[in-house]
Design brief:
disordered C terminus, eight-stranded mixed β-sheet, elongated, alpha/beta, about 40% helix
């Protein structure tokens, strides 16, 4: 990188234990965070993390240590780990050392800056609050993101964090006027290759930079790749005065890599095996993501939650740095409600009347209230059935189930798997749809009519909407179904008005009752008298009243 060839400080390998290397120097010791190089072609990179005594330093290898042995010569490069910055890095893919990994020549017109930088001071920070639209209904309505803020996608394995992050990239990079930087920390190499191909196909690579330190890399490389990406983002914010969209997948892998490095360095572990310096390390990375008077860095981070435990120290420490927390639910994913965002656990500091407006805030609160009431009624419905609920509670259930379906959305990035065309929905259309559902305009529509659609106007085009409207009414009033059958069948039997006028009202009511008895029990019986006690339970109240009157 920037090796000083004039006066080189040379040392020798004293011991090697996995990724931890002890090096002896007879001259001055290299400072903390200095980069050392070893190997036949200087291919092994070591970062100094501790000075053990007057002659030994301990470092972590950022590359595999295969071929390293005691006594091998080590060269002090005289500086820390550096990353390339400049306009030439756009549309390129790099590793943690700034080497191009997209099979193209290395960029030429670039500067090299240290990855270890201080966060901007408070005097330079901006306090302006502005909404950052994503085109995803449930996020824009319930969990609005902040331009220049930090949002986290929390979830366990396989609930859709990477898919949701990739969809946000697809939706926002086209509208993003600035630069987009994707940082892959400890995730699958396949996902990085697919993302590069998709972004190239979409034509957004000219304003995008990718930095990867995936799960096959040593822990030291995964621990530093986030700092490399942030150094590039800070260049575009401070020097180019451009807004930056920084996407990180996955910030938990940064904490996990720090835990591995801490354990290898011999530090005493904290709770659940995490490093005792986790809070400091995470703050050093997150606090550099900030708004300044020259530009803004908007960050969206995927956060893996171990074993779906949101009290895990890694998740708790990450929560405290975010302006919006989007929680993905495994239960909703199992029900096929994608994106599987839990609207009750997710939150945003932007969801206030002063920022999003009175109408948006009131609608979001009403949606949360409706979904919360439905969650409380689920146990009663499971035990006693929907018929035992009050009419008002039944309306709440219908609204909540329609809202759950309407807040699903087909993604552009999953078209090849689902066969559904992706939808980009504006905030206005999303708010209008939720408002009309809360006003019961779609109570007669089938739930499937609002599933996986874009704007609410697409529900009207469903072919089964009209016939389903007739079938939905008896479900809303299950009690009326039992009483309507005897009355409808009694009308043709009582069409003879002459017989009805000749007898008093009590007898006219008794006559349809006697004529009903062969209709109520569907199996035919010979004698008309014995079925009378069996016919009583069907129109219970009417028969009881007539019996008392007689």
């Amino acid at each position: 990188m920037n090796e000083e060839t004039g006066t080189r400080n040379l040392g020798a390998v004293a011991s090697v234990r996995g990724s931890v290397v002890d090096v002896r120097f007879d001259g001055p010791l290299p400072p903390i965070y200095s980069v050392l190089r070893a190997g036949v072609k200087s291919e092994i990179v070591i970062e100094v993390l501790a000075q053990r005594d007057a002659r030994h330093v301990r470092g972590i290898a950022l590359t595999p240590t295969q071929g390293l042995s005691r006594g091998m010569v080590v060269t002090d490069t005289g500086g820390p780990l550096k990353a390339p910055v400049g306009k030439a890095i756009l549309s390129r893919m790099f590793d943690v050392f700034g080497n191009a990994i997209d099979r193209q020549p290395a960029p030429t017109d670039v500067q090299w800056r240290s990855v270890h930088r201080e966060p901007p001071p408070l005097a330079r920070r901006s306090t302006k609050s502005e909404i950052f639209e994503t085109g995803i209904k449930v996020i824009d309505v319930l969990v609005p993101l902040e331009r220049g803020g930090k949002a986290g996608l929390f979830g366990g394995a396989g609930v859709g964090k990477t898919v949701l992050l990739t969809e946000m990239i697809h939706n926002m990079i086209g509208h993003q006027q600035g630069v987009s930087i994707f940082c892959g920390i400890g995730e699958r190499c396949r996902e990085g290759e697919e993302l590069y191909r998709e972004m190239k196909k979409a034509g957004v690579l000219p304003n995008m930079v990718m930095v990867f330190g995936q799960m096959n890399e040593p822990p030291g490389s995964r621990f530093r790749v986030g700092h490399t990406a942030l150094t590039m983002a800070e260049y575009f914010r401070d020097d180019e005065h451009r807004d930056v969209l920084l996407l990180i997948d996955n910030i938990f892998r940064f904490i996990q890599a720090g835990m591995e490095v801490s354990g290898l360095m011999g530090q005493m572990p904290s709770r659940l095996g995490y490093q005792p310096t986790m809070g400091t390390e995470l703050s050093g990375l997150e606090e550099r993501i900030a708004n300044t008077d020259t530009g803004a860095i908007t960050s969206i981070q995927a956060v893996y939650v171990p074993a779906d435990d949101f009290t895990d120290p890694a998740a708790v420490h990450t929560f405290s740095h975010l302006s919006a927390s989007i929680v993905l639910s495994r239960k909703r994913a199992s029900e096929g409600l994608f994106p599987a965002i839990d609207p009750l656990q997710s939150s945003s500091k932007m969801a206030t009347p002063g920022i999003v407006g009175e109408r948006h805030y009131a609608l979001a609160q009403e949606i949360r209230r409706t979904l919360a009431q439905y969650g409380q009624l689920k146990d009663i419905i499971a035990m006693l059935g929907l018929e035992q609920l009050s009419p008002e509670d039944r309306k709440v259930v219908v609204r909540a189930r329609l809202l759950e379906r309407f807040l699903t959305q087909p993604f552009f990035t999953t078209e090849q798997f689902t066969g559904l065309t992706g939808k980009l929905v504006s905030l206005k259309d999303a708010l209008d749809g939720c408002e009309r559902i809360l006003h019961d305009e779609f109570k007669d529509y089938p739930e499937s009519g609002l599933y996986m659609i874009g704007a609410i106007s697409e529900a009207k085009g469903k072919p089964n909407a009209a016939p389903a409207a007739g079938t939905a009414k008896p479900d809303v009033k299950p009690g009326a179904k039992v009483e309507s059958k005897p009355t409808d069948k009694a009308k043709p039997d009582a069409t003879n008005d002459a017989k009805a006028k000749q007898k008093p009202e009590s007898e006219t009511e008794a006559k349809p009752k006697v004529e009903q008895t062969p209709v109520a029990p569907t199996p035919a019986k010979a004698a008309p008298v014995p079925p009378l006690p069996e016919a009583k339970p069907q129109p219970k109240d009417e028969h009881a009243d007539v019996a008392h009157a007689s």
